[in-house]
Fold these 2 entries.
Entry 1:
Amino acid sequence: MRTARKTLSLLTGLALGASCAGSALADGQLDKVMKDRGLTEKDVLAAAKTYTPTGGRDEYIVFSSGGQSGQIIVYGIPSMRILKYVAVFTPEPWQGYGFDDESKAVLDQGKVRGKDILYGDTHHPAISETDGEYDGQFLFINDKANPRVAVIDLHDFETKQIVVNPVYKSQHGGAFVTPNTEYVITAAQYAAPFENGFVPLEEFNDKYRGGVTYWKFNREKGRIEPENSFTVEAPPYSQDLSDAGKGPSDGWSFTNSFCSERYVGGIERGRPPFEAGCSAKDTDFLHVINWRKAEELFKAGKTVKINGGNVLPLDVAAKEGVLFLIPEVKSPHGVDVSPDGKYMIVSGKLDTHATVYSFEKIQAAIKAGKFEGKDPYGVPIINFQDSIHKQVELGLGPLHTQYDSKECIVYTSLYVDSMVAKWNYCEGKVLDKISIHYNIGHLMAMEGDSRSPDGKYLVSLNKLAIDRFNPVGPLHPQNHQLIDISGDKMELLYDMPLPLGEPHYAVAIKADKLKPEVRYKSGWNSREDKVSEFKTRAGREKTERNCDASGNCTTEVWGTVIRSHITPEIIEAQVGDTVKIHLTNLERAEDEVHGFAMYGQNVQLSIEPGKTSSTTFVADQEGVFPYYCTEFCSALHLEMQGYLLVQPKGYQAKAGGMQEGVAYTQADYDKQVKTNVDTQAVIDQVVAYITSHNYQDFPTVVGLVEDATDQLGFAKGAKEKAEAAAAKQDWQNAMLWANQWWQYQVKTADLGLRAKTFLEQNGAKKIK
Ligand code: CUK
Ligand code: CUA
């Protein structure tokens, strides 16, 4: 009884309005559920902080790297509900990605030295910024295994471009954007020769190199411009994470490194392994780069061309004041610039400390020309003590740091300890620690990389899940844990299993900054963001077969899809033809996607409202190839079908026409007509409701009404055909066209009812 009252007051405290804290609670039902499921009050409070009732929306949207899946995972906070996987480096059939010709062209941009690379090891997503704030327009992500960067346009959540780094052979420290997204920064990881040829490991120090690349982003075009991008060559230290300066440090970027020992293992040659030689020294190097200066030198022609890319040579970067090094403690990980741009925090990984570097102190040392020496490549080294603000002992295996909305407060992941440390970097004081499960890598705060982080929530991106979830075999899901950081103490709220690759990093943006479209402009090539040359209007569908002089023939289809048919329903080709099928979705209604799959040809398109998608294949075998719509789009979805007939060369159709399954009579026709008249009465009522309300004020309804009007127009056409056949007492065709007339009516009614429901639920006003 006491628990019940406490629970009740707890829930009232959560401001569940009086009206809904009604009888169920009074009956002790909540108490019973808690008892049955073994939930504590803390659990119930955590549930109330994350539970999102039907129709509810999240406050933040997360873009998480999908690790080796080469995709991006989109989910909401605080509900932790997964909303979408965005296909990036990997074919993904639901979205038709890597199946339609338009997206194949995007994946083709990602070829490495002529080879298809159909996966990516994605690590760090970054949202485009305007004046240091997330603007919600574009998303970038790196591929570590193959040095690539992808551009995703957030107006439709589709991958638009993949660029390949011309000189790296792996790439980790990216994607990080400069405060106005002038550049997308990526850094190399494992040093390798910039040229593509063979260079023996014995020449590692002389010929192997690292670097930091600045990809020029053209915001108007929404694309990276490789020709205006450049790489600052760096010594063969394994460059790791990067971050861009902001505020006072805008124009600079920071990249840490490990294995500055330049150690090359080789157990096969009797050498101690990489891990021994790469962590032998006590320090590595933070790379401090004046990218504005590098940009000036690039524009002044001081770069050289390697594999078609622009490279600022290491000696030029060292001499011209582009590149500086500062010691950092043993095999560090993570470099995170503070929201005000004054500090950079680097964690020790193999050391228990985090180091807070001061940009002001670094600049003072550079201006004074005060260096403790040069590295073997002539790069000036700034003294460690001259550049730091504080060093703080946090725990075992510190990795990444995120900034709170509260001044001086940060959170650092402790991989070995499996904890998050909350600390004050101005004063160098640890404030709180929380255990996570298990082995945290990155962590992420809301809008954490922006000039004004929101705090509120933190997500811990854990490397191991071990015993957290129901077992599903040796390959476990990852675990993203949601932590409430609004109070003094961190509170764990939720475990989300993430079954798609190993996400490294994620970014969260306020949901209301995203304004994705719900449909495309008609006949849209979504990958190039322009009207498709294959756009096809209703009634203009056609199939053409043409052969060139050497006898190579192409059957090309300009078709449409709309509930519930694919036009054409029959495609005739001859064996050996190249078949090209372009399909435009004529729907305007939200969420009315049609798919297009075909037997035995590896064809699967996703054709969203307004989109035009194409597929090309060779019909190299005779046969019958059914195709159909793969999205359950209406009650007659299963009937949304057709046949590709691959005929023998020179095939002639048999005389005598089709075999009919059923013979219809006048009675069948009269019965169907009666049904149609009744259906029309329902449609008339719905139309009367809609037109007597201010439906024009609701764009969603306007779209539905336009679609319904189309369908009603088709119904009229079918009705005329039915009546013409009936006049000739051709009951077979009269009945079938009467039925088609009814099909169009049903679709009209379906759309009309959706519009009516929408108006009722959204407070439409009666106008007449
Ligand atoms: S890295 Cu994986 S935990 Cu690629 Cu940012 Cu640190
Ligand atoms: Cu279109 Cu199912």
Entry 2:
Amino acid sequence: MKDELFSNYQPTAVPPKDCFRALRTPLRFLKGVGPKRAAQLEGLGLNTVEDLLYHLPFRYEDRRHIKKIRQATVGKEESFIGRLVALEKKFIPRTRRSILTGTLADETGTLGLVWYRVRPYIAKSLVKGQELLIHGKVERGMGAQKRMVHPEFESMESGNEEERERILPIYLKPGGMSLSSIRRWVAQALDEYCGFLPSFLPDVIARREGTTDLARAMAEVHRPEKIADIVSLNEFASRAHRSIIFDEFFYLQLGLGLRRKYRTTLKGISFTGDERSLTQKMSALLPFSLTGAQERVLSEIHQDMESPRPMQRLVQGDVGSGKTIVAWLAALRAIENGFQAVWMAPTELLAEQHYRNLKGFAEKLAVPIALLTGSLSSGEKRDTVQGIERGETAFMIGTHALIQEGVHVPRMGLGIIDEQHRFGVIQRMALQHLSGGRGASAPSLPQPDILLMSATPIPRSLAMVLYGDMEVSSVDEMPPGRIPVLTRLFNEGARQELYELVREELRKGHQAYIVYPLVEASEKLQLRDATRMARELSESVFREFRLGLVHGRMNSEERDQTMRRFKDGDVQVLVATTVIEVGIDIPNATVMVVEHAERFGLSQLHQLRGRVGRGKDPSRCFLVTYDGNNPDGLRRLKVMEKEHDGFKIAEADLALRGPGELLGTRQSGLADFRLANLVRDSRLLLEARKEALAWLAQDPRLTGKESRPLKEILKQRWGGRLELGGIG
Ligand code: ADP
Ligand code: MG
């Protein structure tokens, strides 16, 4: 635990591969840890030496000013050094528990110490007569004496004078483990492994960004110098913190940039904008004029389509912002150039909905169109596939059946992936390769353009991480005349009023959604569940109405059947789990109740709410919460009452719950940082992106001398998640 170890530190000369091998040493092999402690640390997700090094203090305590006990101020957090002159364990009959009391004395006075919960390690490490440094909040005790409850403490026997007054890092730790054990192991890890922290960031970048090398940064965050600025440490904004964060962002952005560069070396199709036979006619058929945002996004798409490189563009926009028509116009551009366009939707119902909506236009434009889903009979399927494979069908809509059937689309020019977050990377890639036929990849063929669509708008910082390898367009304006969905929070007590409001809508001939977070009752959670409530409600409050139930554990045929009955108005109240989230369009549904709203993310609630307010009648959304006593939870949900802009809601969601909750775990892999935080550190992210792209601009394949270790680190850290295997 000597500071000199870090002050004369030399940047590592160890090759990156060996660095990672060393850093991935299991913690049980770190001196002093052992298998039992290692197992406890695993509970915090700390498995390797690297994990421990990145386990940064969540807070720093200022112990640079050790006061005399006489100067203790009630209400302040302070540090004192003294001798433990009394120590006593008392049994309190009323609570049937033991408490530990002590007295700390220096030459100016005494201070009472109290522990109401006596952890074994506390009792073990305190000895009467010992010299202690204690830290905590001073309180008023009995009589004139001041006291401290559950103070932090450490024995002074071993420490030298210098060691006493300092900034103390506080770590998250497993219960029953002392803070000083964690600090000892971290120091041990720094001693032995600091030289293996890969610090290869090129000098020019480090100088420009004012960052220090990783090893030094790591030493500084764990053992801040006495002169360090404690405020910036606590804000994770010290130079050391920024260096570690920059390092994390930089490699990810380098990887994303590399993927993007790789794509631009592939051959694509140059669609020309000269041929306007279909797009022009379509403009005349449109029942409305495009919004400014739609126009802008469309022209961004057209630019990509004209370029000889394959397009990979994500169009994000709120539910109802009119992405469908934009994608349809892009498809027509491909078709008027003599190519085929493929549209992939996540469910049969959505595929059918798009098919029905676009069929009218297609017929007027004489564009041959087909629907391909799993539920076609084998005869229908064969005919449809033949039409596509002969190149006669210009526009096809389908589910992943398109991929499963291994359809060959000989003149595929554009692939559209609707609700893209519902598909995995494999499925997206498979769509791209339909032109090769039967899953074969044919690199000699020009790659089709790909348009991804997402109705979950995400903040710019998150987009830079998740979609950093593609272009992103935002339809950030709603078509005119939308009536915002009136949103209100309810608690359990107002349930009858709530039901009455729903019944009122139903009597007017409208339809309702009631959404639950769960399918069935679970033993652990006292939650209302869809299955039980559908039964209960149909026998009581909604006796005179027709109810239907859909949830994720039904097979898709059952589910689609009920959804169709709801669409036809045969079912009036749809009890559902979140399976109704995706783009379903039923204008007659004017009211939605979300039960246990506190269990949903804001973006998810916004998605759900987007199922109503799609017709000309005003719609309402009622959010029922059960933990009315939790002010944070309520404040969070209140955002929904006021805010109707999906981008703003996503920002609030990201700030409040983090990317994992915002996106669902499936997609958040790339946003899993050790230290970086997309809200707090968005400016550093921007810097890292700029630097990474500039670096790639002068060394596109990372073959230069300084780039080689960068490439290795990139592979080690992000290779799997970024699927860099094929890029070499
Ligand atoms: P989403 O972006 O959620 O896919 P849609 O494309 O389904 O939204 O559009 C929602 C509704 O808005 C559709 O009924 C569509 O016809 C309509 N719409 C789209 N663009 C405009 C516009 N510029 N003006 C008026 N209505 C529009
Ligand atoms: Mg849509």
